[in-house]
Amino acid sequence: MEQFQGVVAELVTGKLPQPTDNVTIYESSFEKIEGSNIIMTKSGTEKYLVVAGNGPLYNELEGESVGDGKVCALTHHNSKVLNKHFEYTKPQAFGTEIATMGLGDRLGVASPGHIETVKNRKVKPILAQQSIRELTLLNRTMTDILDAATFAVFQEGYKDGYGADADHIKLEKDIEYALGLGFSFLTLDCSEQIRNDIEGATTDDIHKEFASLPVDRKEYYKNHYLNKSFEVQGLEISYDEANLHKNVLVYGEAIDFMEHVYTEYIAKADRAIDFEISIDETETVTAPEAHFFVAEELRRRGVTVQSLAPRFCGEFQKGIDYIGDINQFEKELHEHAEIAKYFGYKLSIHSGSDKFSVFPIIGKYTEGLLHIKTAGTNWLEAIRVIAQVNPDLYRRMHMYAEEHFEETLKYYHVTPDLNSVAPLAETADADLPSYMDHDASRQLFHVTYGILLTAKSSESGSDLFRTEFFTTLMNNEDAYRASLVKHIGRHLDLLGL
Questions:
Q1: pLDDT for 78-135, tens place per residue?
Q2: Backbone phi, psi, residue 412, to 5°
C-alpha cells in the first residue's frame, strides 16, 4: 500500500490528490464531508477508496491504515457506508414523468460508461438491473449489483439520480429480499401465471372452461366488459364473448398475482418503488384488447404501476435488430402507447438492445416517455474491446462459445445461423472486432456470457477466461467507456432522448 502514501498526504491537507505512475485518481469522486476527505483510486486493476481525516465517514470505513489515512477495498460494508453519508449513491424511484433506461451492468464495470452516456439526456439510468437467471449464470448476487452501482456513482460524482431494478422477479421471497436491500424498481414477471395453452384451445373449450369458473367471478368480468366498448385515446376497444373469455383465462391468475404483490409489498414499502408489470415473456403476442384488459383490471383493483411491458408482434431477440413486419409493429406499438398514456404509465420495451430499425417508431409514439431495458449489448461491447486489444483471448473465448452454444438454449430464445459466421482461422486479428457487427456472432456471445465467465480449467480448477477478461477490461477502461458511450448513445439518439 506504499503507493498510496502521496495520495493520503494530499488528502490530509484537503487537496485534490494527483495521479502517479502507480495510482489513477478519479477526480470527480473527490468529496469533503464532516472532517473526512475521500476519493476513488485505482492501483493496477483494483479500485480503492482512500480516506483521511477524523470524521464519521473516516471512522466507519474499513481499510488498511496508510500514514494518516486508510485505503479501503470496495466491499459491501464500505458501499453501505457511502450510502449512509452520500444520499446520491442510493437508488431511487423516478415515477412516470421521465424516461428511464435499464442498463444491466452484468460485469459490474460498465456503469461509469453508462453514466457518461446519459448525462445531459432526457432519461434516467437504472444502473443495477439483473434477473435472477442472469445472477445465477454469473454467480453474482443482488448485493453485488447494488454495490457496483454505488461505487460507480461515487466514482463519477454523479448526483442526478439512478435506479436499481430487481428484474424479472417471480417469487415473493425474492421480492421481499430485493426491497429489503434497497432496490427502487421491481419488474414483476408474470409468465408463470399467464396461460400459454389457451392460445391453441378451441372456442368451445374456452367457453366451457370459462363456464366452469365460480359464478361471482364470471359475473364480475361480464358486467364490466361483455358487449361493452371503451374509448381509449381515439381507439375503440370492445369485448365480445369470445375475446372476453379468452382474456380472463389467459390473464386472470396473473392479474390476481399482480394485485397481491402490489398490496403486500409495493403499497407497504417505506419509500417510492417503481412497479413494472411484465407480460412479455410468453408465447402469446399481447393484443391491444389484452393490454387494456390487464391495465383496466389493475385500475379497478387500485394497483398503481409505473410501466408495463407487453409482448410485441415480431421478434425482440437478444442482441440484434427487430425481426418482423415494421409496418405492423408501428400500428400495434401506436395502440400500445395510447393505452399506456390512457392509464398514465410508461410503455416498457424489453430486450430493447440494438433494435435500431424500430427505435424512431418507439420514440415517436411514446413521445419520449418510456422505459427500455438493455443488458447484453453492454457485454457485447466489452467483447468488442477484447477483440481489439487482446485478440488471443477473443479467439479462445469464441471457440469455447461455439463448443458450448447448445447449452444456452434452455435459457434464451435465439436463432443464429452459426454457419454464417466467418471462420476464425481465416480472420485476421485486425478484423476480429467486426464479429460484433454480425448478428449470428453477436447472439453466440450474448447467450454464452455465463458459461464463458464461469468456465474453469479441468486440470487446475482456475478460471479459463474470467481473470484475463477483467484484467484486460480494467487495463483498457477508457476504451470500454468510449465504446459504451458510442453504442448506447446511438440507442438514445434514435429514441430521441
A1: 999 999 999 999 999 999 999 999 998 999 999 999 999 999 999 999 999 999 988 9
A2: -135, 145
In this prediction, residue 431 carries a pLDDT of 98
State residue 413's pLDDT score: 85
pTM comes to 0.96
Q: How far is CA 223 from CA 212, 215, 217, 358, 391, in A?
A: 17, 12, 10, 39, 65
State mean pLDDT over 441-464: 95
As annotated, the active-site residues are: 167, 276
Distance (Å, whole) CA 485 – CA 378 = 10
The rounded distance, in Å, linking the Cα atoms of 429 and 112 is 28
User: Cβ atoms within 10 A of the Cβ of 315, count?
Assistant: 13
Cα pseudo-dihedral 147, 148, 151, 155, rounded to 10: -170
